[in-house]
């Protein structure tokens, strides 16, 4: 196999520039590689704020200006494309609906699937561009048969292949990740940006959810969904507290439960289940979070779908570790068994399968299976 993070030959490349240091350096490297690069900033907020709130969020007027200044330094054309309505429908509304249904979504995956490598890529191809370049840390490799594969970044500490696991073979054929194949620290990326004269070299990274700049997800959902008081129950169905909206909880949560009295054993309790129909939240001991298997829906494959059962490693969170699983595609549903129990797995999250460093594909967790509890 050959590394094709930056494909050979001069290409017309559309560089998605968020206004941050990673996308600026990615655009710089694509330009330096000899490609004909055009920068574009996606305006994803209908009412963008002028400035970021600390190191949170993105998509502000300040970010747009930072991206434009970086493009000016690189000497490449630059445009701002308004995709606020598409982003609202495909990412924000989906995020709210998933929480309302008692699930825990990952908006970054949805944005990559629906916006950066669907809406943006389709428009880029229609305008005659060959590839879309982003500052993600991942690697695209071309096999001997010419098929392109998505692999983890060379530096596992910065790897972002999990949030790219929704990309299909067609999208990978037009994806470029110039940062993925270099063993450079973030400090070295910033040093490179400074050496190139990019003012974003010292700009803080964005964190959390870009459209919730203050980081208060529960407050954001409350404003959208309103107050819906309900009960917090223990595993036996006894009321141990109350809440103002089941949507404000996620499986595995420990803090902010506001339970009136401690458990009989004095140990902390965690969210085990969320029922939007009954508007209840069930809590219990940490060991009750153990999951031995799951069913996932809406699979997306980074190449040919796997045939028959297989053994893989799986990642369940953007910043989580790997766990060994056996998985099989059965009637368009992914049936997964863990070799060792894992904890805090929530419906709505994505499971991404790997074969070594290669991303096999991803699917959305629909339900989990817990072990039989002795005496339960």
Short description:
By secondary structure, this protein is α/β, with parallel strands linked by helices.
Structural descriptors:
single chain, 376 residues, alpha/beta, Rossmann fold, SH3 type barrels, Elongation Factor Tu (Ef-tu), domain 3, six-stranded antiparallel barrel, five-stranded parallel sheet, 7 helices, tRNA-uridine 2-sulfurtransferase activity, MnmA-like
Explain the overall architecture:
One of its GO terms (molecular function) is ATP binding. Residues 293-365 form the tRNA-specific 2-thiouridylase MnmA-like C-terminal domain. The protein is of the alpha/beta class and 376 residues long. It has 3 domains: 2-202, HUPs (Rossmann fold, 3-Layer(aba) Sandwich); 227-284, Adenine nucleotide alpha hydrolases-like domains (SH3 type barrels, Roll); 289-369, Elongation Factor Tu (Ef-tu), domain 3 (Beta Barrel), CATH 2.40.30. It is built from 7 helices and 18 strands. It has helices at residues 21-32, 61-74, 84-100, 107-126, 169-172, 186-195, 217-225, and strands at residues 2-3, 12-16, 36-43, 78-82, 131-133, 138-142, 148-152, 175-176, 230-233, 239-243, 270-275, 280-284, 290-301, 310-315, 322-330, 333-343, 350-355, 358-369. The chain has a 6-stranded antiparallel barrel with strand order 13-16-15-14-17-18. The radius of gyration is 22 Å and the shape is globular.
Main sheet makeup: 6 strands, antiparallel, barrel
Distance between the amino and carboxyl termini: 52 Å
Helix content: 10-25%
User: How is the largest sheet built, in terms of strand order?
Assistant: 13-16-15-14-17-18
Structural domains: how many:
3
Spell out the helices and strands N to C: EEHEHEHHEEEHEHHEEEEEEEEEE
Low-confidence stretches: 1-6
What's the gyration radius in Å?
Answer: 22 Å
Binned strand content: 25-35%
Strand pairing plus helix content: what structural class? alpha/beta
Name of the CATH class of the largest domain? Alpha Beta
Just name the CATH architecture of the largest domain: 3-Layer(aba) Sandwich
CATH-defined fold name of the largest domain: Rossmann fold
Mean pLDDT: 89
Query: What is the fourth-level CATH superfamily of the largest domain?
Result: HUPs
What is the overall silhouette? globular
Based on DSSP secondary structure assignment, what is the total number of beta strands? 18
Give the count of helical stretches.
7
